[in-house]
Amino acid sequence: MPSAELASAAFRRNSRRVVIGTEPVSSGDGFFDRRRLLGRRVAARLRAAETDRKHAPAGGERNGRRGDPAEREAERAEARIDAGARDIAAAVRTETNPGMLTLEDLATYQVKERPPVCMTYRTYEICGMGPPSSGALTVGQMLGMLLHFDLPAMGPGPEATHLFLEAGKLAFADRGLYMADSDFVEMPEGLLDPVYLAARAALIDPARAMEAASPGEPPWKKARLRVPDGERPNHGTTHFVIVDRYDDMLTATTTIETNFGSRVVVDGFLLNNELTDFAFVPEADGKSVANRVEGGKRPRSSMSPTMVFRDGAPMLLIGSPGGANIIPYIAQALVGILDFGLDPQVAVDSPHVLSRGGPAQVEQGPEAAATIAALDVFGHQAEAANLNSGLQAILIGAELLTGAADKRREGLVMGQ
Question: On the CB side of 263, how many CA atoms lie within 13 Å of its CA?
């Protein structure tokens, strides 16, 4: 199960901060290349070494040969991973619904580091996770269309909400047709092309809702005939954001797809149920679905861990669970913070409105009836729905970090 690549970047960063005596502990002796996985306990021990450096003898090394504690922990971690892989392969072969996962599958699995997807929105650069997640592309498409409307001058209200819903319809139409694991599926290069998004924005009538949105034709060198994929609910996702004392920053979304994942537990961990994120039907009318099942392929997700930069410096971390609704949750919060100047907690607490191509959905609550009535003026067939986000955000100021935790789920802002 080759996974040195999985942790090497993080541990190279940690190693630059750990000093034993006067010599920094680095990966130069190659043990990151030899070991499979250095888990969190190794990171904790390396960080603890930093606090001990003041006790190290001058010019000497307190802990003997450099790297020894990490080397020993890596060996133990490797043994645990090998044992865990055997446990997983055995556990999925249940009597009621036996799986086909093998040790060979686990041994050949590779963690892939992918470049972020970034786009410019007004004076900000917004970056997120690229395929096989559809998050950054779809959020980027929505914002790229809204860029052509003066939302800051418009402010929160029915007019801005109408435009937001229309941008969501158009973006989700492209998502359903084009987006999937780019290792297996040719995707248009121009999904975030400014000229293309300007043309899509021109389809939005500021006074009237469109009945249905069709996929566009973004710039594409290798066009393919495809049929759109539908949506499926997802209830097993979590998100958190962190800024630490070293100014390391993390926005992380994890998922097992649904509550309790596959309902199979190995050593206290629930195994995921991610296969249901693939399209259930591989083709229709002789055309293939981009997100169809294929061996070795990763299913399309909606995970949208997002970083916002201003003048090259990070200024906002944000993300949420919520299945396909993650995308409009993030886009709405970004509009609230960046365009309307809302405090992050106010933006997170704001009632959700969204459209994934079908009828508009308005978050259940005291304001739902009034919002539905206001949207009816624009021709939206809106309905109240349980829009249970779990947004987490940190706004990074010059002297202050401002956190926000979604009250709809478990969450807490903490700092010291």
Answer: 5
Provide the domain count of the chain: 2
pLDDT tens digits, 257-290: 888 888 889 988 899 888 889 998 888 888 899 9
190 and 218 Cβ atoms separated by less than 8 Å: yes
Q: How many CA atoms lie within 13 A of 265 on its CB side?
A: 4
Torsion of CA 348, 181, 175, 194, to 10 degrees: 90
Q: What six digits make up the tokens of 269?
A: 């961990």
Which residues share a beta bridge with 378?
Answer: none
Q: Tell me which of 22, 96, 102, 237 is the catalytic residue.
A: 237
CATH value at residue 193: 3.60.20.40
Radius of gyration of the chain (CA): 24
Amino acid letter at 19? V
pTM across the whole model: 0.81
Task: Give residue-wise pLDDT tens across range 146-185.
Answer: 999 999 999 999 999 999 999 999 999 999 999 999 999 9
Give phi and psi for 142, each to the nearest 5.
-60, -50
Judge if 199 and 337 occupy the same domain: yes
Q: 3-class DSSP state for residue 276?
A: helix
Of the chain, the end-to-end C-alpha distance in Å amounts to 38
**Cβ–Cβ < 8 Å for 240, 320:** no
What confidence score (pLDDT) does residue 48 get? 44
Whether 237 is catalytic: yes
